[in-house]
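Sequence in, structure out. Go.
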Amino acid sequence: MLTPNGNRRVRPLYLPPLFCRGPACLSMSATPVVVTPATKDPRKATFTLNRLQKTLRGDVGRAIADYNMIQDGDYVMVCLSGGKDSYAMLDILLNLQKHAPIDFRIKAVNLDQKQPGFPEHVLPEYLSSIGVDWHVIEQDTYSVVVDKTEPGKTFCGLCSRLRRGNLYSYAEQLGATKIALGHHRNAIMETLFLNMFFGGKLKAMPPKLLSDDGRHIVIRPMAYCKESDIARYAQLREFPIIPCNLCGSQENMQRKEIKKMLNEWERAHPGRLDVLFKSILNVAPSQLGDTTLFDFRNLEQKRVNRESRVGGSQLIDLLALD
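Output:
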């Protein structure tokens, strides 16, 4: 679109109403844009980066608004693993924090599980460079997981429980009101099928939950974000990714098989994952079979009398109406 003087009009960034505060909404992140050296056309890379940031900000903003994830005065503990998802989550939340109509604090927290060869300097150097408040919890859960896991079994279950326990404990010490995790849309769908195929349960990961002890609220601001968008964004931003040498080394992980299945579906039928994720947000308990979610046993009490008259004369068999 051109302005009256012939110059090209720049389309402003879109930000959901919850996180819009006047003209400030139109500014991008203050963090310098970094283009990978391998990029042939820096202008194209910058355009792609800006587009991805706009998309991710919009997705995160909608998720926060839909589930009331962050409220005025919240102290959000952002859990940073060193992977692409948590880096992107921190980056987007810091950006939204600058323009939100509410005030909330952020503290980035990493759990150093003492994996052999873990580059302990990477996260502190990065977090210090961007000026965010941060803390590293040092706890040797690695040796516990390796020692307690039977040969041939995956580490994920025990590892996640130990990690969650340490993060919850620190959140309580910190006085954090929310604990932010970086799980994205694809991870939620993968968990749905993992629970169905291997656990016999129809459940995934909620965008917001209350811990079992009722003391912590966990939020997943990236719940609406596509993994492909996050991966490309992390690549262009050149986050210092730290690979997980614990679970990442197990090639027989069930989650990897589920991820492969979903990716094959999407390649064969583009858009299928969009529909699948929509179904997670649109549940009809009366069309399933869980008696704790819907009162199937007492439907007779709710049935409309077959002799009911509508309009005074014509008998309507309401049971025949779908």
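Check: DSSP finds ten helices and eight strands in the chain. The mean pLDDT is 82.
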